[in-house]
Amino acid sequence: MALKKIIAAGGLVINERKELLFIFRRNHWDLPKGKLDEGESIEACAAREVQEETGIQHAELLNFLCKTYHQYFDKWLKEEVIKETWWYLMQTNSSEKFIPQSEEDIEQIIWMNWSEWETFKSKTYPNIIEVVQAYKSN
User: Fold this and answer.
1) SS3 of 42, please?
2) What is the pLDDT of residues 35-57, one digit of tens each?
3) Over the stretch 73-89, which tens digit does the pLDDT of each residue have?
4) How far is the C-alpha of 13 from the C-alpha of 61, rounded, in Å?
5) Is the sign of the CA dihedral 107, 109, 95, 42 positive or negative?
6) 42 vs 86: CA distance, rounded Å
């Protein structure tokens, strides 16, 4: 039986110093992302999720990076699903104020430079590494 597919979108946000924005939740460094709302464009979903999860109001959507897939148990649907996430590169000014979305268990939001990324990438998910690699290869 085929798994139900959940469509989501998110953003890899960079600043003027080319640092990467990361959120820390559930003991992992992650990127802001979330499910597509009915009638919403995938680009609008990515922008909305970045805004909701980080508080950033002015992230400019630059270009599509990649799609990732992962399987998980959806506690609301009470079944295994596959999530297809569309990732976009976005840019904002580093002076934007962060407001972590606590209801999504986001504890911390930071700008991470490339050496910090090398240190912290062991505490992230394989799909997030894939997104960062897609950015690096652009």
Assistant:
1) helix
2) 999 999 999 999 999 999 999 99
3) 888 888 999 999 999 99
4) 9
5) negative
6) 7
* Residue 100 banded pLDDT, cuts 50, 70, 90: very high
Taking alpha carbons only, the member of 136, 137, 138, 104 closest to residue 30 is 104
Burial class (CB in 10 A: 0-12, 13-18, 19+), 108: exposed
Q: Nearest-CA neighbor of 71 among 90, 85, 52?
A: 85
Find the mean pLDDT for residues 3-16.
96
Q: Is the dihedral of CA 137, 91, 98, 95 positive or negative?
A: positive
Domain boundaries, the chain: 4-136
Q: Give me the pLDDT at residue 121, please.
A: 93
HSE toward the beta carbon, residue 123, CA cutoff 13 A? 12
The CATH superfamily assigned to 4-136 is Nucleoside Triphosphate Pyrophosphohydrolase (3.90.79.10)
Q: What are phi and psi of 81, to 5 degrees?
A: -135, 165
Q: Which two tokens stand for residue 53?
A: 């999860």
Residue 1: is its pLDDT beyond 80? no
